[in-house]
Amino acid sequence: MARKTGIGGKSLSVDRGSAIRSPVVVPRPEPLDYFLARRQVGTWAEVRGLIQTCHVRVDGVVCKHYRRALCDTSQVTVDGVEITDAEDCGTLICHKPAGVACSHAPQDAPLIYDLVPETWRHPNLQTVGRLDRDTTGLIFFTIDGAWAQQVVEPRHVRWKRYRVAFSGTLVADAVERVAAGLPISGESTPCLSARLTFDGAGSDGLALATLEVSEGRHHQVKRMIDALGGRVERLHRDRIGVLELPPDLAVGTMRPMTLEERVRLFE
């Protein structure tokens, strides 16, 4: 059931979960503003506005601090309405299908955001990085911009693994060139050292390879294979850091990311 609260005459939807207090399923402490945002009280700007203008109480006391750390027993209310805890759907893990764009622009439809279940469509939800329209595999969504920035920075999450099916014949020293830092067209500096291994041939006759890269240049994998003499025909990302695409996550579906997965990502 949803209740309405507001600030400055604007209505905000508050998802209360169930009529009774839900068990705390997301370990705390966590910042007050993130808790309110992931419970879809509003956008980041809206929940911070509510906090700043004294609409939010923690354990019965008005709180004006965005980053107030909550504990397992904290009780949070907005205009007297208790915001109950539930599964953290502020960060999602997705198995992207081919044919959808990582974009909000209507002209790019069909969009990956159309796959997000209605109850998880937070106004601040963004993909963490992008995959090309025809590339499949592992991608994250989050409302937490700071966390997203950590994921895309090589110093935090070093390797991303891609499974490649390609046509053509790569140069004989392709593995060594990739390891040394491959120059690619249109770039003033070569790619960072990467890892290339060959995996034989698929049933359709295309050559198969695994390419692990530690940066995210535009169409990087395709451009690297092109520079080596081949052409990418299929591309699938199955690992980011040490976190692999869950084998039980069907193509085109997603689920909330667990705390354990979020922690393991930075190992």
Report on the architecture of this protein.
There is one protein chain. This protein folds into 2 domains: 2-82, RNA-binding S4 domain (Structural Genomics Hypothetical 15.5 Kd Protein In mrcA-pckA Intergenic Region, Chain A), CATH 3.10.290.10; 91-264, Pseudouridine synthase, CATH 3.30.2350. 17% of the residues lie in helices and 30% in strands. The chain contains 6 helices and 17 strands. It has helices spanning 32-38, 44-52, 145-152, 174-180, 220-227, 259-264, and strands at 2-7, 10-15, 30-31, 56-58, 61-62, 69-70, 76-78, 81-82, 91-96, 126-127, 136-142, 160-168, 195-201, 207-213, 230-240, 243-244, 254-256. Strands 9, 10, 11, 12, 13, 14, 15, 16 and 17 form a 9-stranded mixed sheet that branches. A 4-stranded antiparallel sheet has the order 5-4-7-8. Helix 1 (32-38) crosses helix 2. The longest helix is centred in the N-terminal third of the chain and has 9 residues, at 44-52. The chain is elongated. The model is unreliable at 1-28 (pLDDT under 50).
